[in-house]
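Our preliminary data section would be incomplete without showing what the modeling component actually yields. Below, a chain of 377 amino acids is followed by its predicted structure, encoded as tokens that our downstream tools consume directly.
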Amino acid sequence: MSRFRTRSAIMVATAVALALGYVAPVAAQDVALRGLGRFDGWRENALIGYGLVTGLAGSGDTRRSGVTRQALQNVLSRLGTTVSEDQISSRNVAVVMVIATLPASANVGDRIDVTVSSVGDARSLAGGTLLMTPLLGPDQHAYALAQGPLVAGGYNFESQLNQQQRNYPTTALLQGGATVESAVDAHILRKDGQVSFLLSDPSFSTARNISDAINARFGVGSALAKSADEVTVRYAGDPAQLTGFLAQLEGLLVHPDSTPRVVVNERTGTIVAGGNVQISSVAISQGDIKVTIKAENVASQPNFVSGFASDVRSLVVTNTKLDVDDSAGDTVVRFPNTTVADLVQGLFRAHVNTRRIISILQAIKAAGALHAEIMVQ
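Predicted structure:
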């Protein structure tokens, strides 16, 4: 294809893309307050424990793991059996770390999921059973007890130097395998009679809109936007009725001020941008210069009339050829004031690959024409 035809095709495709893209950006819709953040004090809590997994078919820790033998000895001694470490040689046991997440509000007897991962040199946890393991919080208090059969998402079999493995069998899941033993409840109402709402995406405009919506619903002075990520709400009612008040707050509709962002993932070639991300008038020159280097090694063998010479060796000669190819499809495309969606659509129709589009977006941002934050994953 000639250079003129290539340029014409790109310009036509770009013009079509721009013509299809001239649509007014859709205004952000009102969102319930619960979708914009959380109340201060309403948070999950991490739990951790240390235990043993038994019932492994020879895929547990080896004798090199002294921690495993000591842990098994401690468990058996608590159950009334006295054994020495030398008598423990089974590979059906593995030492594991157990982690879980305790909800912000939990009652005694609630079930939570548990993740188990090997600590020693076990090959697989498939088919194992976790023995009773207390799960501790940061205050070293046991909030839950975990026990039960494991579900591993893979396997590892080995025989006579042949090995087959799928996924990571040294990590397993115990669904509903932990029972909450200590009730927890979130403390949302502060001593001064205020409730704090924390924004997940800090924005001064959104914080002001939240404050205005609360004041319009509960009266002037009920809420105050303290910063871009916190809005305080005054509550003077009965603490027993706090749940109903918070339910009304969560249901309030607020107009959020979204931050313009362009998210690009170079590995998968994904580009995600809001429909209102604007680009000022810009001209893009896209072209390639391909450099090819070819090296050819040739050995020059010395010729002898007779005998050998210890100081004579073969000579290796390298011939290098350098080729520079200017792409015949170079073009310059001009975009008026438009959006990222229009730009990406036009470049795709111009057969510009994703990797180049990412470079173009970064160049436009550096030129000051892209009015958004670029996040590269």
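Residues 3-21 form the longest helix (19 residues). Helices lie at 3-21, 66-78, 204-218, 242-250, 340-349, 354-366. Preliminary results of this kind motivate Aim 1 of the renewal.
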